[in-house]
């Protein structure tokens, strides 16, 4: 497992959502200072496939930050949400901007990729909307566009069931990921020239559509009004043209596992 050099690259996306809170507390005042601002700082460690479709793991560590006025609710954020900032927010609806980081695919990471083109890291800015049809059920959608490593559109859809038992908050729910043709060709396609150089894969031109289905589960322990920690696990099953890619079948895996840990510290700041 490698520690990604992408820490510095993740910093521009460091405006993250606040740490998860219990379903019963989603719309209640935060238990910190009644005036000024509340700042939440997070340290995040995520481990997952080193590139989409890979069968080995890479790691990335990055900070994130959120701000909210004292007395406003601390909103639940699933551990696999993109780093987001709300522009519109009420009791059941939240809309805003979001960003994610996607690591690159490099020959030094896997010598079997010889002849396949290098894919640089990418950032994916976009928009999100989430809705709470019930106080314990959240639906969220993200639409993003790649910059640098890929230039396609991607989307993530998910549902989360959120329950709190004392200091523990559990969340779990299904996930669906989509990508357009540009995204699919970047990570799962093989040109005739690449196939000839590599010698182990055949040419392949995938189309866009659903790229994976899966689920995410997380648990948060709230130590105090200031401190909380979160652990989570994600599972994705590549489907469609992504799963049929010769890169996945020859060098990777349709089963994509991920793990993560987050430590969050909240404090009040004067006006």
UniProtKB/TrEMBL annotation:
UniProt-listed InterPro entries: MipA
Residues spanning the signal sequence: 1-23
Keywords, comma-separated and alphabetical: Cell outer membrane, Membrane, Signal
Localisation: Cell outer membrane
GO CC list: cell outer membrane
Source taxon at top rank: Bacteria
Keyword Membrane carried by entry: yes
Similarity-based family: Belongs to the MipA/OmpV family.
Entries under PANTHER family matching the protein: MLTA-INTERACTING PROTEIN-RELATED
This protein's name: MipA/OmpV family protein
């Amino acid at each position: 497992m490698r520690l990604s050099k992408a820490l510095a690259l993740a910093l521009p996306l460091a405006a993250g959502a606040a740490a998860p809170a219990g379903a019963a507390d989603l719309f209640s005042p935060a238990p910190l200072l009644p005036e000024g601002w509340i700042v939440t700082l997070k340290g995040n460690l995520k481990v997952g496939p080193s590139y989409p479709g890979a069968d080995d793991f890479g790691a990335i560590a990055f900070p994130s930050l959120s701000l909210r006025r004292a007395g406003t609710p601390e909103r639940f954020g699933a551990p696999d949400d993109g780093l987001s900032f709300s522009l519109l927010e009420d009791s059941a609806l939240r809309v805003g901007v979001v960003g994610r980081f996607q690591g690159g695919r490099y020959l030094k990471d896997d010598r079997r990729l010889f002849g396949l083109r290098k894919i640089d890291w990418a950032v994916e800015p976009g928009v999100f909307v989430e809705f709470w049809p019930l106080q314990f059920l959240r639906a969220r959608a993200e639409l993003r566009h790649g910059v640098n490593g890929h230039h396609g559109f991607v989307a993530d859809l998910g549902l989360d069931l959120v329950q709190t038992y004392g200091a523990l908050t559990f969340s779990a729910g299904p996930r669906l990921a989509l990508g357009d043709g540009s995204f699919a060709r970047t990570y799962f396609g093989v040109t005739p020239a690449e196939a000839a150089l590599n010698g182990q894969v055949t040419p392949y031109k995938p189309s866009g559509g659903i790229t994976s289905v899966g689920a995410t589960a997380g648990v948060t322990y709230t130590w105090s009004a200031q401190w909380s920690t979160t652990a989570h696990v994600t599972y994705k099953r590549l489907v469609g043209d992504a799963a049929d890619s010769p890169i996945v079948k020859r060098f990777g895996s349709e089963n994509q596992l991920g793990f993560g840990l987050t430590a969050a510290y909240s404090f009040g700041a004067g006006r």
